[in-house]
Write a structure and sequence with these properties.
The structure is a single chain. By secondary structure, this protein is α/β, with parallel strands linked by helices. The N terminus is likely disordered. The chain has a 5-stranded mixed β-sheet with strand order 6-5-8-4-9, sandwiched between helices. The chain folds into 2 domains: 178 residues, Peptidoglycan recognition protein-like (Lysozyme-like, 3-Layer(aba) Sandwich), CATH 3.40.80; 84 residues, no CATH class. The protein starts with a strand and ends with a helix. A hairpin with a 5-residue loop joins strand 5 and strand 6. Keywords: Signal. Pfam families: Amidase_2 (PF01510), PG_binding_1 (PF01471). InterPro entries: Amidase/PGRP_sf, Amidase_domain, Peptidoglycan-bd-like, PGBD-like_sf, PGBDSf, PGRP, TAT_signal. One of its GO terms (molecular function) is N-acetylmuramoyl-L-alanine amidase activity. One of its GO terms (biological process) is peptidoglycan catabolic process.
Length: 318
């Protein structure tokens, strides 16, 4: 249980009511905390039963990962009923299209600021603070992450204030339960070659880390550079470096710094050869992400003469 004062919460952009809803107590003039059950469990929104065993791993997650849900198309219905509808929509999509046993993410955050449990047992296990429900929201890293789907598409528009406040509150609660430092709050693209959680929301992750740090009363160390995401149509020094690395890996691509069709095709072939799973984030319904070059592709092409951290830092400056 985390105890923070009302002033700290307000500085972080979080209301005392929102913090209480996530099981945090407040001091000073704040009202009594709302039980953590205000994170609406699967039974509240009419979730389908899981079609397989919910795996509970006997360790804590390392990262908290932010997604944007993309579907259903966002609108200005900020009601609790809408939050329940979104949860059902995502579960149906994940089970019927992706073939998963349940919702892939552990929690869902609506544009109205309502938080629901995604995968069954996620709320129960989070409250325990020592184990982790295995989800299906970050390719090849699900054992390490706890994921939050945020209703909406945030490639070009910003999140509503209610969603932002509830996101800060939920992430702070998860971080407090598992002892996760704010530096380990990540976006989906920090692991896979995907647009998710959208450029606008991704750009706000440093702000999210700072806000969560304020709620928890901890200093926030600057996060290490991440692998850049390159997409068809991009141009510049990063693209040119990627092309040089691809050529060194045996692909016949130009080194003109323009991410054209041949570069896209080379990345797609390389990804298939390496057995990288196609990312099933619903962002792919808006943009074809085939051939995107991101966090899981760069390590396949950069020279081995330096560390991952060094390459990421150099690419950030390129």
């Amino acid at each position: 249980m985390v105890t923070v004062d009302r002033r700290t919460l307000l500085k972080a952009g979080v209301t005392a009511t929102a913090a209480g809803a996530l099981g945090m107590t407040t001091t000073g003039t704040a009202t009594a905390a709302v039980p953590v059950s205000a994170i609406h469990p699967t039974s509240d929104w009419g979730a389908r039963p899981a079609t397989g065993t919910i795996v509970v791993e006997n360790h804590k997650p390392t990262y908290i990962v932010v997604h944007h849900a993309v579907d259903p198309p966002m609108n200005d219905d900020f009601s609790l009923a809408r939050a329940y509808y979104v949860s059902r929509f995502i579960q149906n999509l994940h089970m019927d299209k992706n073939g998963w046993i349940d919702s892939g993410q552990q929690f869902t955050n609506s544009r109205g600021g309502f938080i629901t449990e995604g995968r069954h047992r996620s709320l129960e296990i989070l409250r325990g603070g020592t184990q982790h429900v295995l989800g299906a929201n970050v390719g090849n890293h699900n054992s390490e992450v706890i994921g939050i789907e945020n209703e909406g598409l945030y490639s070009t528009v910003d999140v509503p204030p209610a969603l932002w406040n509830s996101l800060v509150s939920l992430v702070a609660y998860i971080a407090s339960q598992y002892g996760i430092a704010p530096e380990f709050i990540k976006g989906h693209r920090d692991f896979n070659s995907t647009e998710c959680p959208g450029q606008v929301l991704y750009n706000r992750l440093p702000e999210l880390r700072t806000a969560v740090g304020r709620v928890l009363g901890v200093a926030v160390t600057r996060a290490e550079a991440e692998w850049p995401l390159l997409k068809p149509g991009d141009a510049g020094r990063k693209v040119q470096l990627a092309q040089q690395f691809l050529r060194a890996s045996g692909f016949d691509v130009p080194t003109d710094g323009v991410f054209g069709k041949s570069t896209k095709d080379a990345v797609a072939v390389l990804s298939a050869q390496a057995g990288l799973a196609r990312h099933t984030c619903t962002a792919t319904k808006v943009t074809d992400e085939t051939g995107f070059l991101g966090a899981d592709v760069w390590p396949l092409i950069v020279p081995s003469d330096r560390s991952t951290a060094a390459w990421r830092a150099d690419l950030a400056r390129a």
